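Try this one yourself first.
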């Protein structure tokens, strides 16, 4: 009784039984073996006095074998960049699989020799970006729409007891009159309402202190509940006590637990930020945040102080 062939499941993919026998696989793999088989067949034909057929077998057998092997090598070289790309693509998901199939189809349709370098460069760039995500857990620079999509998704999905921690450095790109900032503010307030800790440190120049307490987006974060904690520190104070820390803060960040950090970018090219899930990078940002918190004060205290100063000046 023949042994039953069973399919196996590897990495979510169903591996079909291999119906090829060992000798057939060897014949298909080694052109030299095919040439030997052609020689033997030729001898058999010759013994039956089929001289013409024998000669054709001796000549055409090896040539066809070598030709087939050369064609396989050409196809292998042609699609080698795609093979590299498959190592970084999750083909288990159906939508990704469909997308990758289309990439292969488009790649195969580009047959012009002059386009070969261009299409391979496209694949190399894609491979580099996917490799960056796979190994460095870090995105490329994202434009405003992509960045806010990431940000809003993480803020909306925060659960009670989790923590949002942020450093605001640049008021010109934050807390301005825009639909994105309206949504961003509401998501922060919603998070605090469901007992997510939202702790934000504003790093601002001294001449902008009055502006910060009069900004409607920042005023809306004052005295909400014990879960929303706005703090501040002046850039001048940081320059005096910890210049290295100030320099390391960039344009600011917002993070969710130890899961993700979104780093702000003030770019004239339309880029708005970078997303990282790299554990080392997240750890370094959290260390800076805790260090910055040592120098920070309650922003509501600042508002009271400014109100008192204004009142004294009036009298």
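Now uncover the answer:
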């Amino acid at each position: 009784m023949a042994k039953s062939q069973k399919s196996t499941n590897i990495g979510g993919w169903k591996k079909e039984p291999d119906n090829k026998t060992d000798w057939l696989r060897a014949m298909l793999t080694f052109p030299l073996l095919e040439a030997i088989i052609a020689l033997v067949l030729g001898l058999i034909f010759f013994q039956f006095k089929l001289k013409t057929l024998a000669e054709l077998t001796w000549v055409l057998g090896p040539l066809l074998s070598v030709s087939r092997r050369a064609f396989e090598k050409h196809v292998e070289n042609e699609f080698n960049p795609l093979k590299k790309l498959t190592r970084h693509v999750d083909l288990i998901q159906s939508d990704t699989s469909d997308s990758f199939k289309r990439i292969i189809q488009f790649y195969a349709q580009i047959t012009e020799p002059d386009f070969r370098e261009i299409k391979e460069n496209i694949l190399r760039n894609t491979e580099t970006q996917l490799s960056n995500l796979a190994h460095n857990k870090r995105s490329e620079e994202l434009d405003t729409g992509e960045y806010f999509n990431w940000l809003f998704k993480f803020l909306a999905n925060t659960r009670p007891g989790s923590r949002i921690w942020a450093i605001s450095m640049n008021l010109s790109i934050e807390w301005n009159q825009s639909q994105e900032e309206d949504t961003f503010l509401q998501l922060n307030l919603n998070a605090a309402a469901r007992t997510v800790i939202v702790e934000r440190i504003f790093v601002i120049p001294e001449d902008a202190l009055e502006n910060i307490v009069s900004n409607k987006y920042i005023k809306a974060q004052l005295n909400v509940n014990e879960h929303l904690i706005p703090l501040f520190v002046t850039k001048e104070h940081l320059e005096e006590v910890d210049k290295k820390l100030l320099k390391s803060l960039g344009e600011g960040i917002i993070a969710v637990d130890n899961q993700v950090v979104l780093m702000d970018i003030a770019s004239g090219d339309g880029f708005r930020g970078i997303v990282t899930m790299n554990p080392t990078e997240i750890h370094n940002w959290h260390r800076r945040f805790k260090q910055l918190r040592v120098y920070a004060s309650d922003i509501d205290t600042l508002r009271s102080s400014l109100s008192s100063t204004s009142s004294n000046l009036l009298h």
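Discussion: Confidence is low (pLDDT under 50) at residues 1-21, 309-315. The longest strand covers residues 197-204.
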